[in-house]
Specification:
Length: 302
């Protein structure tokens, strides 16, 4: 079984369209959408949710007003300005009423440690949901992190683990991961231990810069990398620069996808570009998929 992760240095490069196309071309796979902050693979693959699970990734503090003496120490020690006060004229107890804004609380626990009256409950925080679903191409594990919630790396690790359990149970040949954009914690959680990473980039100055960052990240985690240049024809000079950069850094160039309005048309009807129609972009993706397969086999010595 191989685990292939599709990432990009930033959002909007066509990563999810490429993942959906590969999912349509692959056989016997399990899909994971690790873009837990802004998941969108479900928009193309319209999964049927079989199981919904709560995700508890961190802690949050809550003041127990009945035990609070209103000394204000928690307000002083909170570095995240999550604690605020209000005068409550109807209340006959002296001092301010202190409250914690759950969205601002970083769950560090300092206030609970310092409170002289043990008047702060420090509890598990429900940060989002994760799902086991069925799609027309195979099982899918995906998630939704709550607004302004942290711990996306933990959630990514959890859903990758669940996907692996499904893949092992049904003897799948492939786990295909739609990774998050950028180079932050959720990307690191998506990459570590994967067999191969595919980087989707565009021939723009920022695209080249982002590519360099993700290639460095993949090298750090010793995950073999390859690159796909999306909309390669919009700037041929930059596309050539990407090829040179990739070759100089031991990154396999899987191929180019031309700019093709059919990609957007396919998204509008919730289909992968492979399902939607034969077009220059879909033909490129067929070729790229075959090369990726060969590359991964070569890396495993097959
Ligand atoms: S430190 Fe404890 S007792 Fe003092 S205001 Fe905060 S919650 Fe209340
Ligand atoms: S747990 Fe940390 S961030 Fe949250 S209110 Fe307490 S001190 Fe502030």
């Amino acid at each position: 079984m191989k685990e292939i992760v599709i990432i990009s240095g930033k959002g909007g490069t066509g990563k999810t369209s490429v993942t959906a196309a590969f999912a349509t071309l692959a056989k016997n796979l399990v899909l994971v959408d690790c873009d837990v902050d802004a998941a969108d693979l479900h928009l193309v693959l319209t999964p049927t949710i079989l199981e919904t699970h709560e995700f508890f990734g961190g802690k949050t503090a809550r003041i127990l007003q009945e035990h609070c003496t209103r000394c204000g120490l928690c307000f002083e020690v909170c570095r995240f300005h999550a604690i605020s006060y209000a005068c409550r004229h109807t209340d006959d107890r002296p001092g301010m009423v202190w409250t914690i804004a759950p969205v601002a609380c970083e769950g560090c626990g300092v206030c609970a440690n310092f409170c002289p009256r043990q008047a702060i409950a420090f509890e598990d925080a429900m940060n989002g949901y994760w799902y086991r679903s069925d799609t027309r191409v195979g099982p899918m594990v995906h998630a939704r992190l709550g607004v302004a919630e942290e711990n996306s790396g933990k959630l990514v690790t959890l859903i990758r683990r669940e996907a692996r359990a499904i893949a092992e149970a049904q003897e799948s040949e492939l786990i295909l991961v739609d990774g998050p954009p950028g180079i932050g914690c959720p990307v690191i959680a998506s990459l570590s231990g994967a067999d191969h990473v595919v980087i989707v980039t565009e021939p723009t100055v920022s695209g080249i810069h982002d590519l360099e960052r993700v290639v460095t990240l993949a090298a750090h985690f010793r995950v073999p990398a390859s690159v796909i240049i999306n909309k390669a024809d919009i700037n041929r000079d930059n596309a050539v620069k990407i090829v040179h950069y990739a070759l100089a850094h031991g990154v396999c160039v899987l191929g180019e996808i031309p700019y093709d309005p059919v990609v957007t048309q396919a998204q509008l009807v919730c289909q992968s570009i492979i399902e939607f129609s034969k077009s220059p972009a879909s033909e490129s993706l067929h070729t790229i998929w075959a090369r990726l397969h060969q590359q991964v086999m070569k890396e495993s010595g097959v």
